[in-house]
Amino acid sequence: MSGIATSKTSFFRSNYEHVTLPAVYTFVFIIGLGANGWAVRSLLQKWKILGHINVFLLNLGVANFLFLPTLPFLSAYYFMRNKWIFGDAFCKITRFCFNLNLYGSIGFLTCISVYRYLAIVHPMRMMGRLTVTLSVAISVLVWLLVSVQSLPDMFYPKTSANNTHTNRTEKCHHTTSTEYAENYLKYSVGWTLTGFVMPLLILLGCYGHVTLVLCRKNTINKVVKQRSLRLLFILILLFSVCYIPYHIFKNLSLYSRVLIKHRMRPTWDEGVFCAHQISRGLVCLNSVLNPLVYLHVMDIPLRQLVRQFYQMFSCLSLKTALCNSFYIILLTIIVFF
C-alpha cells in the first residue's frame, strides 16, 4: 500500500471509526430506546385492534431491544480507539445481539410484507387462516432460523491483543481475526444468501405483485393504496440505507483481507475499507427506522411521535436552540409521511 493510502486510512480511522461511529451509536441508543419504547407501548394499547400482524410487530421490537443496550459498550470501545475492556465472553454476546437484531429485523419485516401481500392480493384466502397461534409459530421459527444462522459466528475468535508483546485482550472484532478470515468469508457469503438475499427476493416479489394489483384495480380504496405504497417506501429505505450496503461491503472487506493474507493487496482495498466502516454506522440505524413500520401499521402520524419527543426534551429543560433545530429537522424528514 502506498504511503498516501496508508495515511488516508489512518485519517479515516481516527476521524470516523473513533469519533463519528461512537457518536452514531450514542444517537441510535438514545433515539432508538425512546422511539421503540413508545412504539411498543402504543402497540400493546392497540393489541386487539391491529389483528395478528401485532405478533410480528412485537417481535420486531424485541429484536431492537436485544441490540440497543449493547451500544454504550460499543461506543466506549471505539471511542477508546479499539480497546475492549469488557472481556471475551461479553464481546461475543455483543456481536451475537447485533446479529439477532439485524437478521431478526429482516425476518420479521419479511413476515409483515407477506402478511400485507396476502391481505391485499388474496384477502378471501387469508380470512380465518392466519391465527394468533400460527403467527406465534412463525415467529418462533424465525427466531430459530436466525439463531442457527448466527450461532457459528460465536465459535470464531472475536478478541485479540492490539500489542503482540502482551496477552491483554483489547480488540473486539466485528467478524473475526485475519487468521480465520478465509473460512469466515465462506460462512459470511452463505449467511448473506440465506439471511438477507432470500428474504429480500421474497419482499421484492410480494411488493412487486402488490404494486401491480394496486395499479390495475380501481376498486381498492385510495387510502389502502397510499398506505401500501408508503410501507413499500419505508422498506426500500431500510434495505437501501441499512442492509444492502452493509452486506456488500462486509463481504468485500473479508475478501480483501483474504487477498492481503496471501500477499495480494487489491487496489480497491482502501475504498472498500472506508465504505465498510460507513455501512457499519448505517446498519445500526435500522433500530431507529424500524419504528416507522410500527407507526405506519398502527396508522399513527409521525408528527405525533416527534411532538412527544419535543415535549420530553422540554420537560428535561433541554429546550434549547439545538433541540429546536433537531425538531425542525425531524419535521422536514417526515414531510413525505
TrEMBL record:
Localization per Swiss-Prot or TrEMBL: Membrane
Pfam families per record: 7tm_1 (PF00001)
One cellular component term from this protein's GO annotations in UniProt: membrane
InterPro entries tied to this protein: GPCR_Rhodpsn, GPCR_Rhodpsn_7TM, NPS_rcpt
Keywords: Membrane, Transmembrane, Transmembrane helix
UniProt domain G-protein coupled receptors family 1 profile: residue ranges: 35-294
GO MF entries: neuropeptide receptor activity
UniProt cross-references to SUPFAM superfamilies, sorted A to Z: Family A G protein-coupled receptor-like
TM regions (residue ranges): 23-44, 56-80, 100-118, 130-148, 189-210, 231-249, 309-336
Protein name: Si:dkey-78k11.9
Gene source species: Haplochromis burtoni (Burton's mouthbrooder)
